[in-house]
Each structure stands twice: as structure tokens, then as C-alpha cells.
Write a structure and sequence with these properties.
Blueprint: E1 9-12, H1 14-18, H2 27-38, E2 42-45, H3 51-61, E3 67-69, E4 74-76, E5 83-86, H4 91-104, E6 107-112, E7 115-118, H5 124-133, E8 138-139, E9 153-157, H6 161-175, E10 180-184, E11 188-192, H7 198-209, E12 216-220, H8 226-231, E13 234-238, H9 243-246, E14 251-253, H10 260-270
Helix pairs in contact: 2-10
Length: 271
């Protein structure tokens, strides 16, 4: 790790960053959050997770600042639940994306009004995500494809590497700059409004609290964290990140399996 300067705000991704290899918050990280907040440093979550799924952990973590959900489509106060910013995909584009996936026989799920909406909640991909997110899906059946949703985010899932690569390529070719697209875990294809990403959301949160960009730090491990890592005054990638993520960072933190987020926050606040 290189030299660090104490920031006024630290934004962290959740899975692979804030959470350990078992998807848990460690005591050391919770202590680091408490210490930072006692010094006036704001801790902000920046996650692709839906709000209710993330809040299960953020409440335990004691995070008291507005945080980022759905990869930046929603900014909400973690204490009173007040929405500070929201940008949905739009009904027409949501419908177009759903039709695109249906025609190809690909799995996709939608998020609307903090609900996880699927065709069939017995599908193995749905059950995998339910277990990961600790949220129960709402099954619409075949009416899912024409239900008129205005989604915060859509998520394609494939456990087949070739299909997942093809899915990403064809979605990018078909929709281009009309959407924001990111891949995570080599399994999830995340789709949101084109103005949405973690960097733009972090800029909004910093503006909301009056924190200059130079005094913000961002920590992440996924491809969807790259913009945020580049935007922040201090960009930090976890050791468990892909090389493309590390290349965007100023500092490399130890992996999430070794309390990497806690250790780098301890260094940041001790600077």
C-alpha cells in the first residue's frame, strides 16, 4: 500500500470489499467504521444490491450516512429511509430489454419499488440470488414480460461462461449508450439507466455533504467499481480484484478474506 491521506468520506462496495469471503461483516471492520465515524469521517456504502438486501448489513455495520444502491440508481438515507436521488430505466426501455431477453431464452430479473421480480421463483438462478441477497423474489409468471414495470435495475444471470459472454456482447451491441451495463462475478449482467454508475452517485453524495472530490476515498473490487475508484481523490482496489480494477487504483488493499477493508480504513483515519 502506498501513502494515504485521511479523507472526509469513504465509500465502499459491499460484496468482495466490505463483506468477507463468507458474506459477513467482521468485528474489526465494524470497529473501523465506528472509529472513522467518531472522527467525523462519513462511511458510505456503494453497492449494486437492492436497498432492503443491503440494509440487512448496513444496519449491523452502524453506517449513518446516505448510501448508494442499485449501482447508483438510488441514493437513500440509511437512518430515516429518505430518498435523496433516484433514476429508473423507464417503462419503455425496461419493456424493450425484457423482450430482448425473452426472445433469446435468457434469464433476467427486475427491481422495482424495492422488490425483486421474476418469472419463476423456482428457477435455480432465482434461488441462487435469493440466497445471496437474503431477499424473497416475487414471481409474476408469464405476465412478467408485459407487466409495465419501471425498473431501478435489471439483472441477467447465467452460470454458463459462453452464454454469459454472448449475453454481454449482444446486449452491448443492441442497446449501446442507451443503458449502463456492468458485469460482476462472471455471472451477473447489470443493466441500469445510462446516467447511472457508482462514480456519478458518489459525486452526488459528496455534493450532498459538501465534501470535495479530493477528500473522498473509494474502495472496491468489481468492474462496476472502476468509475468510482477513478473518480475519488483516493482510489483503492482490493487485492482480490481483477487486474483491470487494480490498474484504476492509487492503492491496493489486502483481500477481503484478510480484513482488507478494515486495515485500509485504519490506515486512512490514522494518516
Amino acid at each position: 500500500m502506498g501513502a494515504v491521506v485521511r479523507p472526509k468520506l469513504i465509500a465502499l462496495d459491499m460484496d468482495g470489499t466490505m463483506l468477507d469471503g463468507e458474506g459477513r461483516l467482521t468485528p474489526r471492520l465494524k470497529a473501523a467504521f465506528a472509529a472513522a465515524q467518531s472522527m467525523g469521517v462519513r462511511i458510505v456504502a456503494a453497492t449494486g444490491r437492492m436497498y432492503p438486501s443491503a440494509m440487512t448489513h448496513l444496519s449491523e455495520a452502524g453506517i449513518k450516512s446516505a448510501s448508494i444502491f442499485y449501482n447508483g440508481a438510488l441514493i437513500r438515507d440509511t437512518e430515516d429511509g429518505r430518498t435523496i436521488y433516484e433514476r429508473r430505466v423507464g417503462k419503455e426501455l425496461t419493456a424493450e430489454i425484457l423482450i430482448f431477453f425473452r426472445e433469446r431464452g435468457w434469464y433476467i430479473q427486475a427491481y422495482s419499488d424495492d422488490r425483486l421480480i421474476v418469472v419463476d421463483d423456482r428457477d435455480e438462478r432465482c434461488r441462487y440470488y435469493e440466497k445471496l441477497s437474503e431477499q424473497k423474489a416475487v414471481a409474476y409468471g408469464e405476465k412478467f414480460w408485459e407487466c409495465g414495470l419501471d425498473s431501478s435495475k435489471l439483472l441477467g444471470i447465467s452460470f454458463d461462461g459462453e452464454e454469459f459472454t454472448r449475453m454481454g456482447r449482444e446486449v452491448r451491441e443492441a442497446f449501446g449508450e442507451r443503458i449502463y451495463q456492468a458485469t460482476t462475478w462472471g455471472t451477473f449482467l447489470e443493466i441500469a439507466h445510462p446516467s447511472v454508475n457508482k462514480a456519478s452517485a458518489l459525486a452526488r453524495v459528496c455534493g450532498y455533504y459538501g465534501v470535495p472530490r479530493e477528500e473522498a476515498a473509494a474502495i472496491g473490487d468489481g468492474v462496476n467499481d472502476i468509475e468510482m475508484i477513478k473518480w475519488a481523490g483516493t482510489g483503492i482496489a482490493m487485492e482480490n480484484s481483477k487486474e483491470i480494477v487494480k490498474a484504476a487504483a492509487d492503492i491496493i488493499a489486502p483481500p477481503n478474506t484478510e480484513d482488507g477493508a478494515a486495515r485500509i480504513i485504519e490506515r486512512l483515519i490514522a494518516s
